[in-house]
Amino acid sequence: MTQGLRLPAKLHRRVCFVLTEDLVLAEELLARKKLAGEIVGRLSDRVLLIRPGRVEIVIEELRKMGHSPQVVGRAGS
Amino acid sequence: MAQNSSDQYDWTDRVRIALSRYSDDLFRSVAGHLVKPKIGQDRDDLLDRVSETQTNAPVIDRRIRELSPGAQSILRLIGLSRLSDWKIGHLMTLGAASGFPEGFAPIESLIRAGLLYPADSNQDLIEDLASWMGLCGTVTAPVFVHPFVLNRARSLNNKTVEVKNRVSGIETDGLEWVLRIAAAWQRSRSGAIKTTQTRSLFKRDLARFQNDPLFQSPLTDLSGSVTDSGVLAFEWSVALGHFRSTGNEFTALPEIPDWSNGLWSTLTHLFSRFFSIETWDPRKGYVTYESGISPTPTSALMLFDSFARTLDEPLSPAQLAAELWELHPSWSSVLTRDDARQQGVAWVESFLDSIAFSLRIVEIVPGTERRYRLTAFGRSLLCGEPEPALPQAFPQTLTVQPNAEVIAFRQGLTPQLIAELSRFADWKHLGTACTMELTAEATYLGLESGLNLASIKQTLDRHSMRPVPANVADLMRRWADKRERITVYPSATLVEFLHAADLDQALSCGLVSVKLTDFIGLTADGQDPNFKSLRLVGNREFDARPVQCVTVDPDGVTLMVDSSQADLLLDAEIQRLAETLPPTIAHPRQYRITPQSVRTAIERGWTHDELEQWFMIRTGQALSPTARLFLNTHPLPAPATATCRIVRFPSAEFTDGIMQWTETRSLILERLGPMIVMIEEHNLAEFNEQLASLGIPLQML
């Protein structure tokens, strides 16, 4: 980056989302009824936005599905 | 339920906070006893002075010596326990059990001397101690002593004895409870442990610990098993601060803290926290008391005090039980009928075996009669002797087998290694050789606790007698890879750039490291980026209410997004309703509603009402007529077509006359404007005739 040049940007804070390895995996998650109910939007093919306050339920459901989700930056950990 | 460890306190600050609740009279009375202040000294200055005096050895020693024998005895006993937090009821019991049945008086004198403080979380002003006790419970009111005061109280009574020609006794390695506590913490990682309003364990969780075969197995150096050892291990783990408490739930911390300072430090910590466990009895196991006060901590402390007073002399359970039976005010009443018949000898023996012996504080003296005496560690703990040398280290103590089981030979284990292994391998069996198992779940939890595959492998390699088998290493790598497939960010900060090129630039210079969309990036840990390289044009909270940030073009279908106002959900929402248009310099983010895009939105579950609502929230206006046109899915009559003529009159007044005159009105299909009407082709000739009759025939163009 050019010295002194500051990129204009907007911050979105406290965003809870799931990032999958590929599109197929994201589709698999959306096909799970209980999970789909907790997804409020899709930022891209691989990024699913979680309803605020429902992260633990999503993680629990992912584990029930047999996945081992990596949780990044969990509060208090 | 034992309370969390309070090691994290700034104790001087804690004293200051407690003192700030005192009424002025009470505070000046306490300060007068402790520091002899100047007349008229400012309260804030005095608060600082009293709290700082807690670590002034000569003053504290002097004040302790000035106490009544009963108060001194209570302070010495809690000093012996090394536990700062107690309940008033326990202290009254300790007073009585040590020969001073004076009720609250010695405790009040400790509070008035500035050596004991209220520990309840209320903020109310304390006018007098009797009302405070009434508010917090006569026996359950919590109090604390500054750890420095505890140390002084203990050291003033230290006694040492020269040990000569001593026949060695049978002592343990001290690791039994370290292992069991680690296992209890480990088994609580998969979900929070819940308690009822009265802080007792939920039946399901209680049964989990009671029925776990690992905890049902006997203690390694003894033939008998400990009643509800799993529940005790869990309660102990909570008391040691291995859990985060939120309301009625206990969630395991990612790792076991504070076990890296060696065996003696860990055992000392275990010893002191044992006295805060109120729900376990050596004979009955898990038990709750309506009064909220268990006799086990005070009885245990009195037994340890007996050893401290008699130094190297072997003591039998019968001797120890006789003293407790005579002096402890509540212990005999909670004994079972059979135990009471023998004056609690079995209770004492059970306690000594399961706790004192297993913690390596006492050893069993060889001989026909069962007798116990302090070990070298016990003498350092209770009598102030120097700590013995640590046991010899055997770092290579593990064997990783091809079936992913790990054999851990006990002589090489240390509290630190136990804590490390517990993060990524499941304890299956405890004994001279312990068994652990490497599983997908345990590896996953280890990685979630902050370890990485390399550090797990390094721990195994460093402590294994043989290299980790290739198939096990491969298995662990596959388990770790599986975790990489889905990443959940519970509370991340996303950085949205105005142009895709800006995001690429930010990625290349490491400002963000993950590209989520063409415009949005993320740091590796999901936290805030380096603000020095950014010019913030907006700041949005994900859970904030949606705001108006879309402008509708006059065509009614082109939507232009105000990037500075838009939130993340907008993109997700708008893409369900409209098609993305190529960006322009004036409008980098624009979308168009098309009949197809509206149809797709309806198919995906959006209702008409939701669309109307979305438009109102996001654009500040009702759905445009064009968009409404696209929405119209109800069957309508087909639009008709016909050849007509347009007739333009010279004035509106003339047109009004033509519209009103019956001869011409029936020939007009529709009035299109003030001076224009529409006439069907086949009526044109007759209409012309009527106009001609008025003297103004049509002029055909």
What does this structure look like?
- The complex is a heterodimer of chains A (77) and B (701).
- In chain A, 30% of the residues lie in helices and 31% in strands.
- Chain A has 3 helices and 4 strands, in the order βααββαβ.
- Chain A has helices spanning 23-31, 33-36, 55-64, and strands spanning 7-20, 39-42, 47-50, 70-71.
- The relative contact order of chain A is 0.17.
- Chain B is an alpha+beta fold.
- In chain B, a hairpin with an 8-residue loop joins strand 21 and strand 22.
- In chain B, helix 5 (69-81) packs across helix 15, helix 16 packs across helix 18 and helix 21 crosses helix 23.
- Chain B is elongated and about 145 Å long.
- The mean pLDDT of chain B is 89.
- Chains A and B meet through strand 1, strand 2, strand 3, helix 3 and strand 4 of A and helix 21, helix 23, strand 15, helix 24 and strand 18 of B.
Produce a short descriptive summary:
The complex is a heterodimer of chains A (77) and B (701). Chain A has 77 residues and is an alpha+beta fold. Chain A has helices spanning 23-31, 33-36, 55-64, and strands at residues 7-20, 39-42, 47-50, 70-71.
Could you tell me the strand content of chain B as a percent range? 5-15%
Strand content of chain A: 25-35%
* C-alpha end-to-end distance of chain B: 101 Å
Overall number of strands of chain A: 4
Largest sheet of chain B: 4 strands, antiparallel
Radius of gyration of chain A: 15 Å
The total count of helices of chain B amounts to 31
Biggest chain contact: A-B, 44 and 59 residues
Helix proportion of chain A: 25-40%
The radius of gyration over CA of chain B amounts to 41 Å
Unreliable stretches of chain B:
none
Lateral arrangement of strands in the main beta sheet of chain B: 11-12-14-13
Derived structural class of chain B = alpha+beta
- What's the helix count of chain A? 3
- Beta strand count of chain B: 25
Strand order of the largest sheet of chain A: 1-3-2
Biggest sheet layout of chain A: 3 strands, antiparallel
Helix percentage range of chain B: 40-55%
Low-confidence stretches of chain A: none
Outline of chain B: elongated
